[in-house]
Amino acid sequence: MSDLNVVHATSLARVDDGGQPRRGPTQGDLGIIADGAVAIRNGVIVAVGTTDEVLASHGDDVPTIDGQGRCVLPGLVECHSHPLFAGERHHEYAERLAGASLAEVAARGGGIWSSVLATRQAGDDELLARLGTSLRRIVSGGVTTLEVKSGYGLTVDEELRQLGLLQQARSLTPMQLAVTFLGAHVVPRDLDGDIERPADDRAERYTDLIEGDMLSAVVAQGLAQFQDVTVEQGYFSPEQALRLMRRSRQLGLPVRVHADAWAPSHGWRTAVEGGAVSAEHLTYTPAAEIREVGRTDTIAVVLPMAELIYMTSQRADARLFIEQEVPVAVATDFCSSIHATSLLNTLATAAPWFRMTPAEVIVGATLNAAYSLGMQASCGSLDVGKRGDLLILACAHPDEVCLAVGAPLLDTVVIAGEVAVGAGS
Ligand SMILES: [Zn+2]
Question: What is the pLDDT of residues 171-225, one digit of tens each?
């Protein structure tokens, strides 16, 4: 909780918060200020504007960073990650690149289920050590607020243990964390120790378990800020997901949705119908469904690294979501099978992948991501009253983020007025 002035930034992208996520023609408004400055006191932003304006009110003697020749962005907000896992899956990617199908990889013991088994077997210390490494990588990619999901447990006890570890991780990082309960990640193969029952029956019985004991325990112990539910052919049906979403709302836990990652599954429509704050992936959501649903407050979170690494045959239609005035966010989907920790590099990929402008992807990983986490009061833009989280980049204009792919642009990450990454950290 420190005092800091950043002055003379060649461009300062304020992404000012107008009280709602950005959509349609405003998705790309960065609100750039030339010769910009920010003043942070006790970890909170107290002034933003031109250097002259900010120094006129806050020119007192505090640590100061000169931003000449550089640009300043709000701290990035990563709204989709699964960082708590054990085991290795790089061989699966190699197999798929060599031509194996997903079904073949799963038949050889791969897929999410292999991570569930490895994570259940791993001790707390082992999981926290690996999680700590991942969190350090994520913050050094410019993220200052991070959503983290459970979902490699899939029993009451294991989901509670993993959520507890994610809560403990707050002490491992300066990032703000939002913890999400993802019991409905996949249907566990060993429900009741019976791996032979037909999958449909297992999905129904597992939905009962989540709706009953699992959600009650998660809420009673105050372990999560969201529930996430997968709506996908062969995973959970729209009806099962709507049941879980209804119960979640009754218990006061807002819902996120994994939707249409592998096939058109009515995931987008179900997320909106169930009042989800966000729907994520949307790779196979049909254009007709996006048009039918139209404008909505549910945020569409697109995940380019997932589509790239899973080699999907389609991409999320981010342009159509923007045209329909749906707010769009961008995230990494860091998980046991996607080790993309740099949100900045993910933005550089997202721009050509989805034909989004640099400004649109930056809004997608700041203000709109903050709204998807309900944390817009503290992050997502450089506005007075929000936490003093910002990035200083070694380039004059934010558009450079999408051109300087992989270049070490990120000079400094400031969290609550303290240098978390960079000189002086
Ligand atoms: Zn995911």
Answer: 999 999 999 999 999 999 888 777 777 777 889 999 999 999 999 999 999 999 9
CATH number at residue 140: 3.20.20.140
Domain that holds residue 8: 4-74+380-421
Q: How far is the CA of 70 from the centre of ligand 1 (A)?
A: 34
Q: Say whether both 236 and 136 belong to one domain.
A: yes
Same domain, 54 and 163: no
Q: What is the pTM of this model?
A: 0.97
Nearest Cα residue to 9 out of 395, 422, 364, 298: 395
What residues have their beta carbon closer than 5 A to ion ligand 1? 333
Per the structure, the count of domains in the chain is 2
Q: Which of 288, 241, 283, 236 is nearest to 262 (CA)?
A: 283
CA of 394 to the centre of ligand 1 (A): 31
Residue 313 sits at the vertex; the CA angle it makes with 311 and 318, to the nearest 5 degrees, is 95
Q: How far is the CA of 219 from the centre of ligand 1 (A)?
A: 21
- State whether residue 45 is helix, strand or coil: strand
Distance 362 CA to ligand 1 centre (A): 20
Same domain, 176 and 127: yes
What is the per-residue pLDDT across 274-297, written as a single tens digit (0 to 9) for each?
999 999 999 999 999 999 999 999
